[in-house]
Amino acid sequence: MHTVRNRKRLYKNFDMHLILHLSILIIFVLVVLGCGKKAPPVPPHQAKPPAVNELRASIDASTPKLAWTIPEEKGGIIPSSQ
Fold it and tell me: Model-level pTM?
């Protein structure tokens, strides 16, 4: 026979199981939705080096040497170390 005491115990167990299952479901959904970035990978931005100016080549005691100038961003020119 179902008594008031048995019903309370039955509903208490039912509530605990429902809360447990909903908690597990919510945690699973949050983990699945929170994993990783949802976009294709993009390579990092890399600035192109400036073009060299006045490229010169010479041979010094069987060693080739190259010399050039590199333009600054503001328009000036920095000579390369030789």
Answer: 0.34
